[in-house]
Amino acid sequence: MTGLDKSLLRRSLGGVPTSKLEKLDVFESVASTNSYLLAEPPPAAGGIRVAVADQQTSGRGRHSNRWLSPPGAGIYLSLAYTFAGQPAELPALTLALGVGIVEVMRDLNVDGVKLKWPNDIVALEGKLGGVLTEARTKSGDGITVVAGVGLNVDLPETLDVGAGSDWAQRAVDLKSLLADCPERELIAAALIASLFASMATFEEQGFAAFANAWQRHDWLLGRSVNVAMSNRRLAGVAAGVDADGALLLDTTEGRTRVINGSIILSGSRE
C-alpha cells in the first residue's frame, strides 16, 4: 500500500465544516498521533485538530499497551475536540465514539461489527480496531479530549495485533471483510467526520444519545468474564453498561459497577 494522499483526504472531509477544522496534519511516520495532538495547542471550543499517520512508531492503547502500527497496514488517526464545559459523563465518551465507528463500518457494508467494553472494535470474534481517549487540558470551564482510532485495513500475514490478547482470537482487517475495500483516505475521512459528530452530540446530549445503540452492539453482553483491576479480580456475567458508561457485571454477590479494568473472557455467552 502506498502512503497517504493528504489532498484526497482533505477533499473527502465533506462531513466536517471547514470552520470547525482548525488543522489537519498528515504524517508519513510519527511516534503517536495521540501524543502529537496532546502536545499541540488545543482547538477552540467546538473546533477540532486532526493528525493522521501512515505509520506510528510508538502507537499506544489502553493501560499504556503498545498498538502495532506498521506502514500501510491500517488507519492511525487522532482528533482533538474542545468541550465548552465539562461533560458529566465524560468516561462514557469512548463508548459513544465506538458507536459512531460501528456506523461508519455499516456504511462501508461491513456487517456484524460489535463493541467490546470499553474501547475495542470487534469483527468475526477478532480485534478490528480500538479507541483511546485522553483528556489534555482544562481551559476555563472547558476541557480538551484527544481521541485516537486505530483500525486494521490490510495487515501483513506475519503480524497479529491480537496476539497475547486476553479476549481476541486474532486480529481482523477490513481487507478480509470487504471484497472491495475503499482507499484508506476515504475511510479516514469518514472516521474523522464520525468522531466530530459524536463529540458534538455527546456535548449536547451526553451518553443517553448513544446508550441504545451501544446495547445493540455490545459484544460482551451475556458473556462470562473476569475483570482484572488494580487490586482485585471480579468474575461474573456482563450485563450491559450504566448511564455513565460503567460496565455492569452480575456476580454471585449481586450487580457490580466496573469503572476501569481489563476484560478476560472466561466462558461463552449465557
What does this structure look like?
The protein is α+β, with helices and mostly antiparallel strands and 270 residues long. The chain has five helices and twelve strands. It has two domains: 6-214, BirA Bifunctional Protein, domain 2, CATH 3.30.930.10; 220-269, Roll (SH3 type barrels). Helices cover 21% and strands 33% of the residues. The strands form two sheets. The protein has a seven-stranded mixed sheet with strand order 1-2-3-7-6-5-4, with helices on both faces. Strands 11-10-9-8-12 form a five-stranded antiparallel sheet. β5 (120-123) and β6 (126-139) form a beta hairpin. α3 (93-107) crosses α4 (184-205) and α3 (93-107) crosses α5 (211-217). It is globular and about 55 Å long.
Question: What's the structural blueprint in terms of helices and strands?
Answer:
Elements: H1 6-11, E1 21-27, H2 33-39, E2 48-53, E3 74-83, H3 93-107, E4 114-116, E5 120-123, E6 126-139, E7 142-152, H4 184-205, H5 211-217, E8 223-228, E9 233-241, E10 247-251, E11 254-258, E12 262-269
Parallel strand pairs: 1-2
Antiparallel strand pairs: 2-3, 3-7, 4-5, 5-6, 6-7, 8-9, 8-12, 9-10, 10-11
Helix pairs in contact: 3-4, 3-5
Number of domain modules: 2
Based on secondary structure, the structural category is alpha+beta
| Name of the CATH first level of the largest domain | Alpha Beta
Largest sheet: 7 strands, mixed
Shape: globular
What is the second-level CATH architecture of the largest domain?
Answer: 2-Layer Sandwich
CATH-assigned homologous superfamily of the largest domain: Bira Bifunctional Protein, Domain 2
- Compute the average pLDDT: 89
Strand order of the largest sheet: 1-2-3-7-6-5-4
Rg over CA atoms = 18 Å
Tell me the number of helical segments per DSSP (H or I, 4 or more residues long).
5
**Through-space gap between termini:** 42 Å
Q: What series of H and E elements makes up the topology?
A: HEHEEHEEEEHHEEEEE
Tell me the fraction of residues in β-strands, as a range: 25-35%
Number of extended strands: 12
> Which fold name corresponds to the CATH topology of the largest domain?
BirA Bifunctional Protein, domain 2
Task: Give start-end ranges of low-pLDDT stretches.
Answer: none
Helix content: 10-25%
